[in-house]
Amino acid sequence: MNAIDQEVAGYYDRLLERNAGEPEFHQAVAEVLDSLKIVLSKDPHYADYGLIERLCEPERQIIFRVPWLDDNNNVRVNRGFRVQFNSALGPYKGGLRFHPSVNLGVIKFLGFEQIFKNSLTGLPIGGGKGGSDFDPKGKSEGEVMRFCQSFMTELWRHIGEYRDVPAGDIGVGGREIGYLFGQYRRLANQHESGVLTGKGLEWGGSLARTEATGYGCVYFTQEMMKANGEELSGAKVIVSGSGNVAIYAIQKAQELGATVVGFSDSSAWVETPNGVDVELLRDVKERRRERVSAYVDETQGATLHTDGSIWDLAADVALPCATQNELGGDHARSLVSNGVRYVAEGANMPSTAEAIEVFREAKVNFGPGKAANAGGVATSALEMQQNASRDKWTFEYTDERLHKIMSNIFKMTAETAAEYDHEGDFIVGANIAGFKKVADAMLAQGVI
After folding, report:
1. Residue 429 near residue 413, CB atoms below 8 Å
2. From CA 366, how far away is CA 305, in angstroms rounded?
3. How far is residue 101's CA from residue 365's CA, in Å, rounded to a whole number?
4. Model confidence pLDDT, tens digit, residues 269-293
5. What pairs with residue 79 in β-bridges?
6. Were both Cys, which of 95, 188, 315, 351 would link to 169 (CB 3.0–4.6 Å)?
7. 83 forms bridges with which residues in the sheet?
8. pLDDT-based confidence at 36, cuts 50/70/90?
9. What is the C-alpha to C-alpha distance for residues 255 and 349, in angstroms, rounded to an integer?
């Protein structure tokens, strides 16, 4: 082990000791540190002033109680989180996740990823993340509203358009953002549109924000394919998940001529050899909030599977758009054996370290989440721009800006990978390109 490897291993050992019981956070940091060894070999000044250790330690971690009344007038208590990770480039920016799996380690992993993702967009936004172990599934409208109001009653004092700007994530859609914004407006006694993104179009939201993460993932995939002289038209695509990201990744892939041959939710997966009826899927998942079995019941040519895996399907492109660590080593081997040549992460860290290694060995073109799913936060920043200027852009103009940002992210990622002698390794390219911009700002601003 050389000196740099030893130094980085020391950072990681100290991080494990200080952050016990947070495997998702450990995994996210380990992936980035692996790339930073390459940077430190060429640019050793990035080890100065405790930069790496400061980068891996959140600027602020907020944990709070969220009490609320259910419909039977019983008091329920959840835990709320906001991790404000790094503000060197701008106000903290990152979503809120409401899901039973949420804990401090999950929020820290998401916030850490957000630092580099936001950096890659080229927009002035820092990294943060938040949420709660509250599960909105099965809750009434009144219960969701009362929870959101209680959650914001504490969170509001920690956020603001120049301080921290949350958005949605898993379990937090337009309904939840509405309740959260209403409570913020009541507590702050002002209509501060820029404090939350993902708002309704009538009260400060941006056209194309709903579609942005899914569209952006497909735009990044399109750039990967173009670099190899291929195109999406005629390709077979697998998309895991059936939430916001998955639905609009499906829509954009099919608009560009691909056939989406499967999608899923946490209960089952659906084989769709003739493609997906996006409007029916939106009706089932967004309006009726039902399982994917309802989609199969109402369409021909689709098959419901409750065993096996969506990753067993044959396809050219795989877009994991559900949740972290959904795609393991065995899944990756199935995808490779069934002909997948391109993988782009629509979710945050959906591929395990073992899966990524399988893709690397098979020379599969792999777009990591911090690059491939940056379209959502990029368009959130565009929403902030519109709020600040009291302006409203057309869907076409916003989508054009999104497409250009995703093309620039791919170009920056590819060029950085080549610069550091890892041509075609978009993980290395994304990690280093995102890191250097943040690191330069942190060094310029002193030890804070």
Report:
1. yes
2. 27
3. 30
4. 999 999 999 999 999 998 888 999 9
5. 65
6. 95
7. 61, 129
8. very high
9. 26
For residues 303 and 300, give the distance between their C-alpha atoms in angstroms, rounded to a whole number.
Answer: 9
Q: How high is the pLDDT of residue 132? A: 98
The active-site residue, picked from 93, 129, 370, 437, is 129
pLDDT digits (tens, 9 = 90+) for 176-209: 999 999 999 999 999 999 999 999 999 999 999 9
Task: Give the span between the Cα atoms of 129 and 169, in whole angstroms.
Answer: 9
Q: Which residue has the tokens 């690059």?
A: 371
Residues 6+ apart with CB under 8 A from 246: 214, 239, 240, 263, 319, 321, 322, 346
Tokens of 104: 């401090």
Tens digit of each residue's pLDDT (9 = 90 or more) over 386-424: 999 999 999 999 999 999 999 999 999 999 999 999 999
Q: Look up residue 341 and give its two tokens.
A: 């040549």
Residues 133 and 99: beta-carbon distance below 8 Å:
yes
Give residue 150's identity as a one-letter amino acid code.
Answer: S
Helices marked H in 66-192 — which ranges? 104-120, 141-155, 174-188
Whole-structure pTM value: 0.94
DSSP notation for 198-223: S--GGGT--TTHHHHHHHHHHHHHHH
Active site residue 129: yes
Residue 301's CB is within 10 A of a number of other CB atoms, namely: 11
- In DSSP terms, 132 is beta-bridged to 80, 98
What are the residues whose beta carbons fall under 8 Å from the beta carbon of 91, sequence distance 6 or more? 125, 126, 160, 161, 162, 163, 164, 165
Inter-residue contact 297 to 274 (CB < 8 Å): no
3-state SS track over 41-65: HHCHHHHHHHHHHHHCCCCEEEEEE
315 closest CA partner among 220, 239, 378, 389: 239
What CA–CA distance (Å, rounded) separates 433 from 413?
6
Q: Is the pLDDT of residue 3 over 90?
A: no
Contact criterion met (CB below 8 Å) for 354 and 379: no
270 and 241 Cβ atoms separated by less than 8 Å: no
End-to-end Cα separation, the chain, in angstroms: 31
Tokens, residue 420? 């550091």
Separation between Cα atoms, residue 118 and residue 11, nearest integer Å: 23
